[in-house]
Specification:
Layout: E1 2-9, H1 12-22, E2 26-38, H2 43-46, E3 49-58, E4 61-76, E5 79-88, H3 91-99, H4 110-117, E6 128-142, E7 145-154, E8 157-165, H5 169-182, E9 187-189, H6 194-200
Antiparallel strand pairs: 1-5, 1-8, 1-9, 2-3, 2-6, 3-4, 4-5, 6-7, 7-8
Length: 204
């Protein structure tokens, strides 16, 4: 179970201000491309599951590729809980699957096997690509917490968010809210996952 605090920053100004304040604690920047898959008849979606292929790039060169299966998501009062299974795959294989979704079903993968065995995706019907979005993630080590500040670029707009994975989300939320208020950064509790925003086709 992945447990995260998710707070949405209201605009680019607040996003920039937060990054400036956190700059002494910056450890890395990640360029991510998120692409999603399902069966043609939406078997995963019907069971509240999401199959994501996330590639990481540096100077347009793909360095890592991670396949994720998420299920039974809940996002309440800025705290997200979701069952998550992750697996690294070869970046070239991932790129080929994005270009031709049918290849995903042929991939030697624990997660793909789960999609077939547990969720009932037919090998013959296979997978279809739903599209996706790009995300720029700045990571900070701050007061013993790992903060991830995201700029998610959808075809219909940009969304800004701060996330923190932790087993004590209510404490972390209090700390983050106090910090944001002290620094005059406007925020609200995230009400939708990035995937839900992508599928809705509009910003929340």
């Amino acid at each position: 179970m992945e447990v995260e605090v998710k707070l949405r920053l209201l605009d680019a100004v607040n996003h920039s201000r937060l990054k400036e304040i956190l700059s002494p604690f910056h450890i890395k920047k990640l360029n991510q491309k998120n692409v999603f898959f399902d069966s043609a008849n939406g078997i995963l979606a019907s069971q509240r599951a999401v199959l994501r292929l996330r590639s990481f790039s540096n100077n347009n060169e793909k360095t890592r590729c991670v396949l994720s299966l998420k299920a039974k998501p809940m996002l309440i009062n800025g705290v997200s809980r979701v069952e998550e299974d992750e697996e690294e795959i070869d970046p070239l294989t991932g790129e080929q699957c994005v270009e031709e979704a049918s290849k995903l079903g042929l991939t030697e993968s624990r997660i793909i096997k789960r999609c077939k065995d547990e969720f009932g995706i037919d090998g013959e019907m296979g997978f279809v690509c739903l599209g996706g979005f790009e995300n720029v993630r700045d990571v900070y080590e701050w007061r013993g917490l790992k903060l991830e500040v995201d700029e998610s670029k959808f075809s219909f707009g940009v969304c800004y968010e701060i996330e923190c994975e932790n087993d004590d989300p209510e404490r972390v939320k209090r700390v983050l809210e106090g910090f944001l208020k002290e620094n005059g950064i406007d925020y609200k509790y995230s009400e939708m996952s990035k995937f839900a925003i992508f599928r809705a086709g509009k910003l929340p």
